[in-house]
Design goal:
This protein is an alpha+beta fold. 25% of the residues lie in helices and 43% in strands.
């Protein structure tokens, strides 16, 4: 683990917190926003987490910041198109059509997403997201699972700096913790 943390620090990631079986990082800025990352070791079978992450409509159940997650259908070239609406206290809701994919990795699965090129299915009633790119990687370990979460998110519109800093700190810890809590309680 120490070697991994050293590699992350060298790759532009700065440790920000340790909580709930996870180490949290903030990356170097990309435009106006910095990416976030979490590395977790949980005593939860990887298969259980993989099942939750593979069910895209369920994201609105597991994550308090996802108000809706409506599957629009398969994406050309693979994956699934999902219309998500994101909510956060103090700002208008955001929305985007996301391309969500699952792919095998050694000992596990990577679930990735990015804003899809065609946004014609958004309602137009919410602020359009500028960037929403990320991944969950879940791999089996002898004691349960190793989980990696990364996100680069530009909410678009006007967002106070303190809310951005909150999301990149305790907001990210909350979101990652919500997956663990859901998996342990369901």
């Amino acid at each position: 683990m120490l070697l991994l943390l050293t590699q992350l620090a060298l790759a532009g990631w700065t440790e920000t917190a340790r909580e709930n079986g996870c180490v949290f990082f903030l990356g170097d800025r990309v435009g106006s926003f910095a990416p976030v990352r979490a590395e977790c070791d949980w005593p939860i079978p990887a298969e259980k987490l993989q099942k939750l992450l593979a069910y895209n409509p369920g994201h609105a159940d597991y994550f308090s910041s996802v108000a809706t997650a409506k599957v629009l259908g398969p994406a050309p070239g693979g994956g699934e198109l999902v219309l998500q609406t994101h909510t956060a206290s103090g700002i208008s809701d955001r929305e985007a059509v996301l391309l969500m994919k699952a792919e095998p990795i050694p000992a596990g699965t990577r679930y990735s997403w990015s804003k899809y090129s065609d946004q014609s299915k958004v309602s137009g009633q919410n602020v359009p997201l500028i960037t929403d790119t990320g991944k969950w990687e879940v791999t089996s370990t002898a004691s349960g699972s190793h989980v990696v979460y990364e996100l680069l998110y530009d909410p678009g519109g006007s967002v106070p700096g303190f809310l951005v800093r909150w999301f990149q700190g305790s907001g990210t810890r909350t979101l990652v913790g919500e997956l663990r809590t859901w998996a342990e309680s369901h």
